[in-house]
Amino acid sequence: MILMNKIVPKQGYVYIAKFNPTSGGIKKTRPCLVIQSNILNQEISSVMVIPVSSNNKFNRPGYQIKINETFLQKESYLLTNMVTTLNISRFQKELGKVRKNTYTQLIENIKLIIG
Predict the structure, then answer these.
(1) At residue 79, what are phi and psi to the nearest 5 degrees?
(2) Domains of the chain: total
(3) What is the pLDDT of residues 52-91, one digit of tens each?
(4) pLDDT attached to residue 9
(5) What does the buried/exposed string (b/e) look like for 31-53 if buried means 16 or more CB atoms within 10 Å of the residue's CB?
(6) CA atoms of 110 and 81, how far apart (whole Å)
(7) CATH of the domain at 32
(8) Residue 26: predicted pLDDT
(9) Which end of the chain is less enclosed by CB atoms within 10 A, N or C?
(10) Could you tell me the end-to-end alpha-carbon distance of the chain, in angstroms, rounded to an integer?
(11) Of 19, 14, 18, nearest to 34 (Cα)?
């Protein structure tokens, strides 16, 4: 969805977004999964996302969910312990929607993280 030449991110979709500059954490352009509701995505300029990484160096099964989607060029992981918000202006391109079972697993992992 695009509104006034800006992407309006959709829940459950992966986008390329600029994380740089941020204080700490991720400092580059990378894929991210939108977890915020579509209603909020249309109303406010900040969007809650989970970064996607092809790096599994930490190998934390409880925090990283393997994601195999054809629109991602590499084997990738949802970094569920790094939930963050991005301004809508940082979104560059929609890549695709994750499978329902992947999104369901993600929500279950978030529930474990927040208690």
Answers:
(1) -95, 80
(2) 1
(3) 998 876 666 667 888 989 999 888 999 988 889 999 999 9
(4) 95
(5) bbbbbbeeeebeeeeebbbbbbb
(6) 8
(7) 2.30.30.110
(8) 63
(9) C
(10) 33
(11) 14
